[in-house]
Amino acid sequence: MKNHDYCSIAGLKHRGWTTKAIELFLGEPDKTDVNPHYRSAAPTKLYHLGRVIDAEKSQAYMDFMKANAGRVEASKRAVDTKKAKLMKYIEDCKITVKQKSYEDVVKEAVEAHNEFKAEIAFERSLRGQETDYQEATIDDEPEFLERIVVNYLRHQFTRYEKELAAIFGKVGTREAYVALNQKIYIEIARVYPNLKGECEKQLAKKMGLPPADIQSQGIIPEKKEQTRQTTLI
Fold it and tell me: Do 195 and 150 form a contact (C-beta atoms < 8 A)?
């Protein structure tokens, strides 16, 4: 018989079979053949199509697949519930940003940036690697300064690190991570309106979108009149 009279495991999976169903209702393959994609790989297991169809017609198989579909649906609902719970946590999360003079924040951000780069350069030197570390200054290009200032504000002036730890490893972490960053960038831009463009750039990168999309969708709104200052709790 030719191989078109047989089903590989991939073919069975395409028909809706699970690994457990193959084990229960088909057992050992009817024959094996050379792997068509990688000759050095393990032989491909093949199951006679007639035996596969007979198994699919059996009541035991149909009962098993019905029960399995129920388990899959229940598992999906559980995952969706956990994701929704995590997103609700982020929605309720209070994000605040400490407000200081922009000049002072720039100085602090430059200092923090230099300390971080110096640590990396030192570690590289211990491994005998070359370092091209060059200190930043408050006179550097505005675009560069805005980038390190936003990073500094996000890590030092908000609850970013604490909230990251709270969502790490949970179902829906990726979506929650993006939502958390969105809230933080919105608040940074509200307190420091001159950083709105940089916040949009960084958020776009985390969301995998062009910055123009963030701008056109108004994800980070223009600053409204403040009735009070926002302080870090």
Answer: yes
Number of domains in the chain: 2
Sign of CA dihedral 107, 111, 112, 116: positive
Buried residues in 120-158 as b, exposed as e (16+ CB within 10 A):
ebeeeeeeeeeeeeeebeeeeeeeebbbbbbbbbbeebb
Distance separating alpha carbons of residues 233 and 226, to the nearest angstrom: 18
Q: Which residues of 23-43 are buried (b: 16+ CB within 10 A; e: fewer)?
A: eebbeebbeeeeeeeeeeeee
List pLDDT tens digits, range 18-41: 999 999 999 999 999 988 777 778
The CA radius of gyration of the chain, in Å to the nearest whole number, is 28
Residues 49 and 99 in one domain: no
The phi-psi region of residue 208 (left if phi > 0; otherwise alpha if psi is between -120 and 50; otherwise beta) is left
Which domain, by its residues, includes 118? 87-217
8 Cβ contact list (under 8 Å, min separation 6): 44, 45, 46, 47
Q: Residue 24 region, left (φ>0) first, then alpha (ψ -120 to 50), else beta?
A: alpha
Residues 117 and 192 in one domain: yes
Instruction: Answer whether 0.70 is exceeded by the pTM.
Output: no
Q: Are residues 23 and 133 in the same domain?
A: no
pLDDT in tens, 151-171: 999 999 998 999 999 999 998
Pull the structure tokens for residue 105. Answer: 């924040």
